[in-house]
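protein under study:
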Amino acid sequence: MMKIAVLIYDNFCNFEFCIALEMFAMENVPITVFGEHKQLYRSEEGLLCQAERSLEELCVDEYDALLLTGFQNEHFPLADNPLLQSIIRQFDAKKKVLAAISAGPIMLIKAGVLKDRHFMCACPKEGLLEEGITMDEMELMMDWNDCIKEYDTLKFIRSDHILTSVAYGYREWAMEIGNMLHLKTYPKSFGLTE
């Protein structure tokens, strides 16, 4: 049975993955909500959510995908967590879907899985430099300034099993996750054409 791991944290962005979560519910695909610790986390919208399990309990072999939503700014200490980085690298090594949106790709950068891959991130490069991310790590990145120039045509970037997007592409990002997992996606339910 297919299962999806969803990671939440303080100030996670709920709206960015709500369409993906609804699509999973419509297809009866269970999700497990993880946090660094098994505790309550408040989204940037103010929604209080419970992590069902801690990162220590995440067994990569039990999941088909890991979803990483955005957060409020470039400074995100969880991205430096060695356990999270290891989990992301395991998903990558097993070619399981890694889907990150908005600032979420920071976690993929810090885990080292975006080298030689094109990707989107909703943060300006200058802000990421201040967080210790190098220009080499951002070589193939489209930052927020690049992305908004292609707002009408570019909603996500897929590189094999890794999918990145920014906030304005959250619906298309969700549909592509469904396509990657061979699920029915229901685009008209979310205001998109087939």
In short: The chain has one domain: 4-190.
